[in-house]
Amino acid sequence: MRGAWFDGSKISFRDNLPQIQAKPNEVVLNVQLAGVCDTDLQIARGYLGFVGTPGHEFVAQTPDGRRATAEINANCRTCDFCQRGLGNHCPHRTVVGIVGRQGAFAEQVVVPGHCLHFISDSLSDEQAVFIEPLAAAFRILEQVKVQKSDQVAVVGDGKLGLLCCWVLRSVGAAVHWVGKHPAKLALGGAGLNTHLLKDAPDLSKSFDLVVDASGSPTGLATALGLVRPCGTVILKTTVAANYEVNLAPIVIDEIRVIGSRCGPFQTAIDALLTGEFDVLSLIEAEYPLSSVEAAFTHAGTPGTRKILIRVDQA
User: Fold this and answer.
1) Alpha-helix residue ranges (DSSP H) falling in 144-218
2) Which CATH number fits domain 137-259: 3.30.310.170, 3.40.50.720, 3.65.10.10, 3.20.190.10?
3) pLDDT tens-digit profile of 49-79?
4) φ, ψ at 74 (rounded to 5°)
């Protein structure tokens, strides 16, 4: 089987990966298109010690020809966590392309049948590949009640940062986007207030809610400088590096810090079907699977928008 392989030190293309086998209640999907996200880049830097085929943002075909994507958390559905609606935190779960399960930068990927979500013909492959990251952005609204009167900041001008901005703006909040790259900040469109990171000190303690989607270990410190006393920080960033941050302001200013990860796929699919979010504007380039090394290099270049990997073509 053709696919990408991370051996613990580098990502490379291989044309001799073992053919994968499905267990009972699992489905073998033929991958069509996959997106490179910051978590994939962190894996290539040693995050979670993953070895194998990464990739978890994808569009594929089922054996009967239907287009689908899948929840990345393959949970057991029977433990206490799953029964309490906490399947994304199932202690027995594997995570597609991240923990204990091979990912989508290959011709085929295997997922439990209950993780599948079918994709309407109204969405292109390029739109549908954003279902997983858009769902992650919608997770914020499940965790925090955002008021129209709230002043909100999102730190990080990457793809997830912009998706978070769009989702928060969709509920009427005043959203401020903080990043390093003027060209990327310009993608936000009307209704977003944009600020360069170097000017962040001027916004000190200005926001009721701050989302760290920077992908940097310094993002939390920036977020803590922006949030007002008794405000909330949503931490979206996962990095291979260690954090070095002064936690005293969390206690002194009574700040809530909430970790935030995977979100509701169907909500994301429904939002994409409305056309409200112009995710196609986030795409910079598409590479064939055989050029996965070049795709990762490009994706890791500062200022880069979304990089896609076309799997179903030679």
Assistant:
1) 159-170, 182-185
2) 3.40.50.720
3) 999 999 999 999 999 999 999 999 999 999 9
4) -90, 90
